[in-house]
Write a structure and sequence with these properties.
about 70% helix; mainly alpha; 14 helices; about 325 residues; elongated
């Protein structure tokens, strides 16, 4: 047998007695199946990179945009409809040209994408809050409460989301009037989109809640007297978030498209606060007169943004589905 000194024996005992340090959250995230699935999909990596770039361009617009399209003092009507820099009669100050009011198209796209993303995010958050709350209550309570909530959801599903948004916008127009409506246009859009998309969250969460409420951990919580609200929020909600994340990602792209559609129809963001849909609507009037860049460039930005978000949503749906692993 090899000779072992007292110091080596003491060190060996200390090593065995030392507690094993648990990996941090970042380490666990990088070692998870979800992250490995993300790295294996080249399309998803490209989509995530493109989404991150577009998000940065949008939210850093006040600092990186060449001009401020909202600053009327810096806009000159003499610069209206200037073509992009690679065309004849271009101005090097405006890389992608200008619109009919002399606003820089590149700056307008940055700011417009920012408004579109904020409206999309806020509407998804509000819709998810309403849908998750109603879905938890309907699935957990059951009975008449479940029947009333689901019948309301069934009635709303018979109407397209765009029509519901138009109806809510029309009601707001009648209440606030044309002038006040422009002031509250941002909030009206968020409410309109949220009330159009809450049904998907409610139906999904209701189905998952009906499965979870019959499991042993929920029954045990009931036996020891935990209130129903606490059971729904602390115990059931964390187990139904997977499908909600997928719906939220896909709905973000759908909310951006719906907002652009409403703005294109003239019932979304006003021309003084242009989103991508507003810029496309402005450019549509000049599309056949030769100033194609006023509509094409915002349209391309919208298409790239929605495409990247949709690709991320498709990957997330497959990655969170255990049957596809």
């Amino acid at each position: 047998m090899p000779f072992v000194t007292n110091e080596e024996a003491k060190s060996s005992v200390q090593d065995r007695a030392a507690p094993v340090k648990e990996p941090g959250r970042m380490t666990r995230a990088l070692d998870s199946d979800l992250f490995h699935s993300f790295l294996k999909s080249k399309v998803t990596v490209v989509a995530a990179t493109g989404t991150a770039i577009l998000f940065l361009l949008a939210f850093l617009a006040p600092w990186i945009a060449p001009h401020d399209p909202f600053d009327l003092a810096s806009i000159s009507i003499m610069d209206a409809r200037v073509p992009p820099v690679w065309m004849e009669y271009a101005d090097p100050r405006f890389l992608l040209g200008t619109d009919d009011q002399g606003r820089d198209m590149l700056s307008g796209i940055f700011y417009g994408m920012r408004i579109s993303l904020i409206v999309g995010f806020c509407s998804v958050v509000v819709a998810a809050f309403i849908g998750i709350s109603l879905g938890l209550v309907a699935g957990y309570m059951g009975g008449r409460v479940d029947a009333i909530i689901m019948r309301i959801a069934d009635v709303q599903l018979t109407f397209p989301a765009i029509l519901i948004a138009l109806l809510i916008d029309g009601v707001a127009h009648g209440i606030f009037g044309a002038i006040d409506r422009e002031v509250f246009a941002f909030y009206i859009l968020i409410v309109s989109l949220a009330l159009s998309f809450w049904v998907q969250y409610a139906r999904t969460v209701r189905g998952s809640t009906m499965v979870e409420k019959n499991k042993e951990y929920v029954q045990a919580a009931r036996v020891i007297g935990i209130p129903s609200v606490v059971i729904m929020v602390r115990h059931i909600l964390p187990n139904v978030t997977g499908p909600v994340l997928v719906i939220a990602t896909i709905n973000l792209a759908l909310a951006i498209v719906t907002e652009a559609t409403l703005s294109f129809l003239g019932v979304g963001m006003p021309p003084t606060q242009p989103s991508l849909g507003t810029l496309i609507a402005i450019g549509n009037d000049f599309l056949y007169s030769g100033e194609w860049w006023i509509a094409i460039f915002p349209g391309l930005a919208l298409a790239l943004l929605v495409l990247n978000v949709n690709l991320l949503g498709d990957w997330l749906r497959d990655a969170l589905n255990p049957k596809l692993r």
